[in-house]
Amino acid sequence: MTNMPISAELVAEHNAASRDALSDEYDSLGRKLGRRGIAIDAIKEKVKSFGVAVPSWGTGRGGTRFAKFPLAGEPTNIHEKLEDCAVIHQLGRSTPGVSPHFPWDCVDDYTALREEANAYGLVFDAVNSNTFQDQPGQAHTYATGSLSSTVEATRQQAIDHNVECIEIGKQIGSKALTVWVGDGTNFPGQQDLGRSFDRYLAAASQVYSALPGDWKMMLEHKMFEPAFYSSVISDWGSSLMAAQQLGDQCKCLVDLGHHAPNVNIEQIVARLHHAGKLGGFHFNDSKYGDDDLDSGSINPHQLFLVFNELIEAELSPGKGFDPSYMIDQSHNVTDPIESMLSSAETIAGCYARAAMVDRDALHAAQDGNDVMLAFRTLRTAYETDVTPILAMARDELGGAIDWLGVYRSSKYRDRKAQERKAVGLGAGIV
Ligand SMILES: [Mn+2]
Q1: Fewer beta carbons within 10 angstroms: which end of the chain, N or C?
Q2: Which domains, and CATH codes, for the chain?
């Protein structure tokens, strides 16, 4: 931590004021967990080693198709976005990775960009390509598709862009490419559903062939929007078929908001893990559709159940278990730094609660068909207030016990509102 945006003295001062109360709560919880045979320090150590990446574009105010309401002081370039990511990681200590998006985050010198991130204690996570919007000067439009376009030159342009993202990723230390396409249709009959998928597969295999041997390519499915009748990679079935055809290094990425309402996402997690194709997650929450609300803000229980499957997968790796975790949500009405700190805490909390499920008791109840005992074994873990563990982990890692209090006291956003140029569309609509 050589270049931290928030005063270390301010963090220390706040932590000192709340440390006695935290210790009291942590010790009390430790005694409670001890009676359940759980060592609180072991859970705390798991939390300390848990990380979830933040998206560079998530540092800006998102928007909807109706409007975006910029925030004074929000970042307008990758350098300012990195500074905001540094604030999030400095205070929360669980978000060391930044997932960049191209061409939004293009610069002239990627070696310097990597060093800039490293100086904040950050590293670059998966690179994200963008073939869902046209860029100024672009030769071929993506209006009717990119990797699945009927136009060969358009497909080639989309392939070239993804390969360029891989090349950039190599320079900034990334090991994964995430591919999401908005390809699909808005009218029945607009395209042949089978041949669109064939064209996507042929083009995606060209991207796959440019993948370094130690990388993974993650396919992100999305049920609808911008295509409202059919999407080429609409669900985990299409994603799995594509990943299986493309090769071992190709995996499926589960974005929690990209499913039909009420879909059992935790079961999809279990199925993809079974197939050795669970590549990663985009965490967010949703009420009616893909509304990209803050992770766990609507349905924290579902998030817990997803982590319950992830812990099961971790214990039974089968064909391998190394998923990438990333927050991917749209902050339309909050300060994105506060939202991502809140979400990172919620996500780590669900991980901690899933980690304290009595697995032996759960498996025994499942095998014996003791329905209520199996349910209560999960519920006991879910109902545990793990916030003292999360706060203690932050304190021990040099973060803030009360991240919101420290952040507000720092007046960081007010200072940036003076220093940074006014925002137009800012970091991009997501
Ligand atoms: Mn996503």
Answers
A1: N
A2: 8-419 (3.20.20.150)
